[in-house]
């Protein structure tokens, strides 16, 4: 799986998104992450592994309690990806805007002059 | 007129994407923009991706097919599908298949609402899988969009000036 697919797969789960939202507020230990979700530690660890594989979370090796941190870079990739898609539609729709303006300025010539109409 | 934040994109689930866009035009007119090749050819495509074929059998169960050809590399991108629901002017449902990758069929639902002369288009795209949805999102990156951007203004101007 490429990096973006990994990121999307990691974000597909609501618990993992909630973990990321918590980490956006600052680093936290696995225990601190488990508490608000009413989850067992192994379950949280499983989610964290998926997030780590996607590069969304890193875990400090220095401190004994190994706090987790949010890594925002892959999220930025996704935002850019979605933004490019959105921009391509925006381009298409602004062409439609221009055309609609034109039709409304010359309703007789454009709207009814060409093409079959399908209203009864 | 052409600021870049008019279209909103949301991903309400793993297999959907939704585009919302306002148009300053009455609802039946906006609806009709999908109903004939004459209209479609005026706003779909761009200077690089030129529409070279457009066939529309605008009735429930009828089929449609558009081909966009890339002027730079000559690659043809065919899209086709079937109309499932046609409820003018508020609802249009059709399937869409990207012909270059078999099996990539999605369901598109257009809903139109009009308030005070402004028509809001909500375009919901339902995919058979998350992989396909993500792949489609990603395709936005792969079609030389920056180049399209550069040429859009000139194109919009030429459209506006057309007799």
What are the salient characteristics of this protein?
heterodimer; A: mainly alpha; 6 helices; 2 strands; disordered C terminus; B: alpha+beta; Alpha-D-Glucose-1,6-Bisphosphate, Chain A, domain 4; eight-stranded antiparallel β-sheet; 8 strands; 25% helix; 41% strand
Q: What is the number of helical segments of chain B per DSSP (H or I, 4+ residues)?
A: 4
Class per helix and strand makeup of chain A: mainly alpha
| CATH homologous group name of chain B | START domain
Helix content of chain B: 10-25%
Task: Write the CATH fold name of the largest domain in chain A.
Answer: Arc Repressor Mutant, subunit A
- Percent in strands of chain A: 5-15%
Number of domains of chain A: 2
Distance between the termini of chain A: 52 Å
Query: What is the strand content of chain B?
Result: 35-45%
Q: Could you tell me the mean pLDDT of chain A?
A: 80
- Helix/strand order of chain B: EEHHEEEEEEHH
Could you give the topology of this structure?
The complex is a heterodimer of chains A (120) and B (163).
Chain A: H1 3-11, H2 14-24, H3 30-37, H4 41-53, E1 57-59, E2 68-70, H5 73-105, H6 107-111
Antiparallel strand pairs in A: 1-2
Helix pairs in contact in A: 1-4, 1-5, 3-4
Chain B: E1 8-10, E2 16-23, H1 27-32, H2 37-43, E3 49-56, E4 63-70, E5 76-87, E6 91-98, E7 105-115, E8 118-126, H3 130-139, H4 145-161
Antiparallel strand pairs in B: 1-2, 2-8, 3-4, 4-5, 5-6, 6-7, 7-8
Give a written overview of the molecule.
Chain A is mainly alpha-helical. Chain A folds into two domains: 3-71, Arc Repressor Mutant, subunit A; 74-111. Chain A contains six helices and two strands. Chain A has a two-stranded antiparallel ribbon with strand order 1-2. In chain A, α1 (3-11) runs antiparallel to α4 and α3 (30-37) packs across α4 (41-53). The N and C termini of chain A lie far apart (52 Å). The relative contact order of chain A is 0.12. In chain B, strands 1-2-8-7-6-5-4-3 form an eight-stranded antiparallel sheet. Chain B is an alpha+beta fold. Mean pLDDT of chain B is 82; it is low at 141-163. Chain B has helices at residues 27-32, 37-43, 130-139, 145-161, and strands spanning 8-10, 16-23, 49-56, 63-70, 76-87, 91-98, 105-115, 118-126. In chain B, a hairpin with a 5-residue loop joins β4 (63-70) and β5. Chain B has a single domain (8-141), classed as Alpha-D-Glucose-1,6-Bisphosphate, Chain A, domain 4. The two termini of chain B are 20 Å apart. The relative contact order of chain B is 0.18.
